[in-house]
Fold:
Amino acid sequence: MRKYIPRLAVALMALLCGRNIAVAQSSVAPDEHRSLAIYQIMVASFIHGDGGASGYTAMWGPDGHTKNGNLAGVIEALDHIKSLGVNAIWLTPVFDSSTATGGEKLQATGYFTNDYFKIDPHFGSDAEFRRFVDEAHARGLYVILDGVFGHHGGVTAPSPSGHVLDSTVTACDRADGGTGNVSYPASLEYMKDVATYWIDNYGIDGWRLDQAYQAMQGGHNYWLEIRKAVEDLCASRRARGEKWGTLGYMVGEDWGDAARINSGVYSDGGLLSAFDFEGKERISGAMQDVSSEGLENGWDDVRLALSPPSARGYLNDAVIPNLFLSNHDGYRLADHFNQADSLYYQKMMTRNAVLAAYSGPVTLYYGDEYADRSLETTGGQRDNIARTSGHLEPRTSGERELKEYIAAAMKFRFENPAMWRGNATFMNYLTAKADILEVTKTDSVSGNEVKIIFSTADTDFPLEQLGRPVSVKAYVPEFVKIR
Structure:
């Protein structure tokens, strides 16, 4: 697990450096970003679709699992993804990395591209990518691409508009952030071209930004200019009546806690959203350690996770941290739990209920809906052991019940803005057999009100608004619409 810098130290460093950590306002409606429920796919390890590109033959990840995933496999999965109640899909990088330095295992991840303006032929063609985007949009799914704006694997050509990439090896501003080979400000116009090209030409809806701190150099956060270019383009597309390519969502990867992110990618208004690694650890355990299953403080951790960003140490409530339970860089959600536990699936339902009830964007990692595990695989490392084969059907009744619960919870989230935008209040009840948390979420815009009931044991919980009790099973939170 990466160590966090103490919050006071980060705050003092920001003060001493004179860095402005105010957050700029977005020109894109933030509510659309708050409502996102994103399904993440690692393309090479997901599914190989017949009739599509050949795929790679090797990738950093567990032995014996898919390495030749392609866009055809992702297209094949779109109906399944839609059935989960999510409204967006994030693909790990699909840009051409076929000649990138570092060998095939590295090339297959996509994180070291050699051409930002072409689809990797191992995954598919530009035309096939367009088909993917159109098929996703036809199902009401936003498309989020993974962008690496701080390092590359051998780019030599200019952008279509003639800007060039400065590949000088450069350290970012974060002390432990290492070096990249994209130097700013010389590379800024090139990277603005990358950020806008896929929106303007394919109608994609946003970016996941790998190692986002690498774009902070020389005391300046270059996400400010890149985000403005994206939002200006999205605003112009929206003004001319376009439905897609107007969202402009940008979420940064930084494994730091709230204080580090405040003084990092959120500083100067660079980004408005970053992954909530601190929240993930609280709810579902550490990224690269399975000694904890999260919720060590019981329902108090649920309270904190569902509280406003400022109450959790973030800069203010204008930022929108993205909560998640696992991803491609650490252990899977199911790895944190003992399969012999009689509440094995129910405990995962609890975590997904918190995700569904979170006021802000959330991300699900492929396979977690089926309790996929990675611990029993061989040949993996802690940062890639979760890159297991994708599948579209459950293998056991427990997997089916988990998938159905997640789908119902996300559908409830989608239908009730109080879930993703509302303010939460909490009431705790201790009975002879159960510790119960009643969460009430209210949306001031629509008047929508919902309740989520968490309980440590089977119980009938009285709800005055309904005039009847609600049956709640142990660690299977119940969602109730009040108005």
In short: The domain at 21-422 is CATH 3.20.20.80 (TIM Barrel).
